[in-house]
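Priority: medium. Attachment 1 of 2:
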C-alpha cells in the first residue's frame, strides 16, 4: 500500500460522520454474544429486534504499519440485564498506545490489564489514554448516544478473544439495578 498523502477530515454536523469517510461497521446485539453477564436477557434482546448497539465510522486511512487510522464510535443508550450497552472490547496484539477523545454524551473507558481494572469518565472534550497492553471497552452510561474519536497505530490489530476469555474486571450497571457478583461499578 502506498503511503497516504496529507489530507484533512471534517466532522459531520452530528459528529457521527467523517468527510472523507472510510468503512462503517454496525454492531448489533447478536454480535455481542457472551459479553453481557445476563445471557438470557441478551438472548431476549436478540430475539426482540436485535437492536444496533454501536457503530464505528472509520477514516480512509488503512490499518497498516506506520499509518495512524482514526474512527468515531457511537454507542446508543440502553441496558441489557441491567448492564449498560458497551463495545465488545479488545486488546492490541501488537501492544501500542491509543488515544480517545470524547465528542458527545457520557461514557466510560474501561481498561483491564488482566489484574487491575481502571475506569475513566468520558465527557465531550475528555482525552482518554490507553497504554499498551491494556484491554479496553467503551460503555454508554448516559441517556443520549455516547460518541468518541479513537486514534490508533495501524499495526496494532484487534484481539477480541482475549476479552471473551478474561473479561474486563468490572461491569457497569445503573445503581438501581440488581447486583450480581463482585467488582461492579455503578453510575
Ligand atoms: C480501535 C479502537 C476503537 C474500537 C471501537 C469499537 O483500536 O479501540 O475504534 O475498535 O470503539 O470497539 P470494539 O471493541 O468493538 O473494536
Ligand atoms: Zn483499540
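Attachment 2 of 2:
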Amino acid at each position: 500500500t502506498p503511503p497516504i498523502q496529507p489530507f484533512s477530515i471534517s466532522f459531520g454536523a452530528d459528529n457521527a460522520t467523517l468527510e472523507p469517510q472510510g468503512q462503517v461497521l454496525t454492531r448489533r446485539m447478536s454480535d455481542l454474544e457472551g459479553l453481557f453477564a445476563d445471557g438470557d436477557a441478551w438472548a431476549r434482546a436478540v430475539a426482540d429486534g436485535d437492536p444496533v448497539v454501536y457503530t464505528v465510522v472509520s477514516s480512509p486511512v488503512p490499518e497498516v504499519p506506520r499509518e495512524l487510522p482514526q474512527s468515531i464510535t457511537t454507542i446508543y443508550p440502553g441496558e441489557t440485564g441491567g448492564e449498560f450497552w458497551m463495545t465488545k472490547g479488545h486488546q492490541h496484539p501488537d501492544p501500542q498506545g491509543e488515544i480517545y477523545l470524547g465528542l458527545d454524551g457520557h461514557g466510560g473507558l474501561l481498561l483491564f490489564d488482566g489484574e487491575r481494572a481502571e475506569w475513566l469518565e468520558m465527557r465531550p472534550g475528555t482525552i482518554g489514554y490507553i497504554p499498551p497492553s491494556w484491554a479496553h471497552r467503551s460503555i454508554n452510561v448516559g441517556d443520549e448516544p455516547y460518541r468518541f474519536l479513537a486514534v490508533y497505530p495501524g499495526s496494532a490489530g484487534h484481539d477480541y478473544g482475549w476479552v471473551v476469555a478474561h473479561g474486563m474486571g468490572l461491569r457497569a450497571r445503573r445503581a438501581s439495578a440488581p447486583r450480581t457478583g463482585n467488582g461492579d461499578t455503578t453510575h
